[in-house]
Design brief:
This protein is α/β, with parallel strands linked by helices and 199 residues long. It is built from six helices and ten strands. Helices cover 24% and strands 28% of the residues.
Length: 199
């Protein structure tokens, strides 16, 4: 689920970067090095070209920090860490307002209020011109008026709904979503429980 949502498509999400190195090894791309080798007998420094594919598109992640999400947030953040190269940091927490997440003692710390206002997320996406976003929530965000998301590209805003959440408000607004499978989050442990994740 996370790979499908976060990882960009091969066509649009990756770009090729070329680099050149001078090495004392003959190169098929540097004809002059062959000529120098034939005439002088020594292997000269030759230009070697290499290409690598880099992630061009990244995704902004918004976390619902209402009370019902509390036990799922830390395991989800640990999971998101595996995709750190394709995520814009910091993660953003939302309730009635939007705040950047902080990490203390290996756990996420985000300010929160009693409510949930999904419009804070849409406003941030709109103001910062965020191209791709993942919203992790229980889905209880209230009715989303069509006029409030007219200028949002719904195909590029995914919702990940908690296992006990409801997708009805998200589905009615026309956003793509996935529901987390049933899991016992209390039993989720890392291979090294003493290792702290630094983000």
């Amino acid at each position: 689920i996370m790979k499908k949502i976060i990882l960009p498509s091969l066509e649009k999400g990756l770009e090729t970067e070329s680099s050149q190195l001078l090495l004392p090894v003959l190169s098929t791309s540097d004809r002059r090095s062959f000529l120098r080798f034939r005439t002088g007998g020594l292997i000269p420094f030759a230009t070697h070209e290499s290409t690598s594919r880099l992630v061009k598109e990244t995704v902004n992640v918004y976390l619902d920090v209402s009370g019902s999400m509390e036990q799922e947030l830390n395991p989800l953040v640990a999971l998101l860490y595996n995709f750190r190269d394709t995520i814009n940091w910091p993660l953003m927490g939302f309730s009635d307002e939007l705040w950047p997440a902080e990490f203390r003692n290996g756990k996420i710390k985000i300010k929160t209020t009693s409510g949930t206002d999904i419009q804070t997320v849409f406003n941030h996406i709109r103001e910062k011109k965020i191209p791709r976003a993942l919203v992790i929530t229980d889905g209880y965000v209230g009715k989303i008026p069509p006029a409030s998301v007219m200028d949002i590209n719904k195909k590029n805003v995914w919702f990940l709904i908690s296992q006990d959440g409801s997708p009805s408000d998200i589905d009615a607004a026309g956003f793509p979503y996935r529901i987390l499978p049933k899991s016992d989050w209390k039993s989720c442990t890392t291979s090294n429980p003493n290792k702290k994740i630094i983000l």
